[in-house]
Design goal:
The chain is mainly α. The model has no long low-confidence stretch (mean pLDDT 90).
C-alpha cells in the first residue's frame, strides 16, 4: 500500500501546524493572538522547513540565523500591513530599544533565532514521521571537510 501524500497536502499540513505552533507561542507569552499570526506562522514554518530541504548540508546554526532573518523580515512586512496600514494594532514594539517603526526589534529577532531551532527540528520530525522522508542529520557549526587523499 502506497501511503504517499501529494505536495499540496504536505504543504497544507505543515502550514497549519506552523500556524498553530506560532499561535500557541503567542498565547503562552502574550496571552493573546490574532488570526493574522496564524497565517504568518504558517508561512514562516514552510520557509524554515524549506531551508533544510533545499540546503541539506547547511549547519544548524546557519539555518537558525537564516530562519531568524526570514521571520523578522516577514514580521516587519506583516506589521506594516496589519498595524500601520490597516491600524489593527496587533503588536507594537515602540517601547523596546532598537525597534524599526515599532514592528520588529533586535530583542525579538534574537528570540526568533533560538525559537527557530524548535521550528527546524519540528519540521524535520513531521516530515520523517508523517511523510516518511529521510531523517536529517545535524551539525551545529559546520560539516567535517571532505577527506583529501594525497596523491604522490
Amino acid at each position: 500500500m502506497d501511503c504517499t501524500i501529494d505536495r499540496p497536502m504536505k504543504l497544507f499540513i505543515l502550514f497549519s501546524f506552523g500556524g498553530g505552533l506560532y499561535t500557541i507561542v503567542e498565547l503562552l507569552f502574550r496571552q493573546s493572538s490574532h488570526w493574522s499570526m496564524f497565517i504568518l506562522g504558517g508561512i514562516c514554518f514552510l520557509l524554515i522547513g524549506g531551508i533544510n530541504s533545499v540546503f541539506t548540508d547547511m549547519p544548524l546554526a546557519a539555518q537558525m540565523g537564516i530562519s531568524a532573518v526570514i521571520i523578522t523580515v516577514l514580521e516587519f512586512l506583516c506589521g506594516c500591513v496589519v498595524n500601520l496600514l490597516l491600524g489593527w494594532q496587533v503588536w507594537n514594539y515602540e517601547a523596546l530599544p532598537l525597534n524599526l517603526f515599532g514592528q520588529v526589534c533586535l530583542y525579538f529577532s534574537l528570540a526568533w533565532y533560538f525559537l527557530s531551532f524548535v521550528g527546524i527540528v519540528t519540521d524535520d520530525f513531521l516530515r520523517t514521521k508523517l511523510f516518511y522522508e529521510p531523517a536529517k542529520k545535524y551539525t551545529l557549526i559546520r560539516r567535517k571537510p571532505a577527506q583529501i587523499e594525497d596523491k604522490q
